[in-house]
Design a protein that fits this description.
Number of strands: 8
Distance between the termini: 10 Å
Number of domains: 1
CATH topology: Rossmann fold
Helix content: 40-55%
Strand order of the largest sheet: 2-3-1-4-8
CATH architecture: 3-Layer(aba) Sandwich
CATH superfamily: P-loop containing nucleotide triphosphate hydrolases
Number of helices: 8
Structural class: alpha/beta
Radius of gyration: 16 Å
CATH class: Alpha Beta
Shape: globular
Bound molecules: adenosine monophosphate
């Protein structure tokens, strides 16, 4: 199963991708997580990427394509993978197609998680991560335990989220037709409980 998960910031694609990964025993590959790790490690690439990320801008294509190409070489990707947050541009989608074609492992499906704009903003601005466990909470819908060490992602602040949503719309304007033309696109309603959305995803993936 080789899946691309498309969804706006805070659409739930990170959470659902994690559940899919556990259920099918395949890795979830998040370029956002990889870039944040590189930033935290203070590598030259990470620090360069941070300049774009902190402003809610896309990191240059060649940087993320290089990261994904290297990651897909790992043995754990052989049975399948879930891409979360990649591709975000048509050149990234083309590079991914070329890469997977060269391995004889084309994409199975591209899922778009659909969530209305006003819900996305509330989800992102109230989202917090426990820095010790990586667990994601929501101050209103999924409150953290009292001992959690909470972090608010720098790019989850309202002004930056708005910019990221504008970027997301620009991205999907080109990517959705790209995958629709290739008969790979499935839309899934991303409003509901976690379990409801997991079930809808399972149907879209035919699992
Ligand atoms: P995410 O965690 O997927 O929301 O990504 C956080 C940030 O990392 C984005 O706002 C971008 O700055 C950067 N990023 C992640 N994936 C990509 C990508 N495929 N192309 C360009 N920038 C990316």
């Amino acid at each position: 199963m080789r899946v691309v998960l498309l969804g706006a910031p805070a659409s739930g694609k990170g959470t659902q991708g994690q559940l899919l990964s556990e259920r099918h025993g395949i890795p979830k590959i998040s370029t956002g997580d990889m870039l944040r790790a590189a930033k935290a490690a203070g590598t030259p690439m990470g620090l360069e990427a941070a300049r774009f990320m902190n402003e809610g801008k896309l990191v240059p294509d060649e940087v993320v394509i290089g990261l994904v190409a290297e990651r897909l070489e790992a043995a754990d990707c052989a049975p399948g993978f879930i891409l979360d947050g990649f591709p975000r541009t048509v050149p990234q989608a083309e590079a991914l197609d070329a890469l997977l074609a060269s391995k004889g492992m084309p994409l199975s499906v591209v899922v778009q998680l659909d969530v209305p704009r006003e819900l996305l903003l509330e989800r992102a601005t109230l989202r917090r991560t426990d820095v010790r466990t990586g667990q994601i909470y929501h101050l209103k819908y999924n409150p953290p335990p009292p001992d959690a060490q909470l972090e608010h992602r720098a790019d989850d602040r309202e002004e930056t989220v708005n910019k990221r949503l504008v970027e997301y719309d620009a991205m999907t304007a080109a990517l959705l037709p790209y995958y629709h033309e290739r008969s790979l696109l499935r839309r899934v309603d991303g409003v509901g409980t976690m379990q409801e959305i997991t079930e809808r995803l399972g149907q879209a993936l035919g699992t």
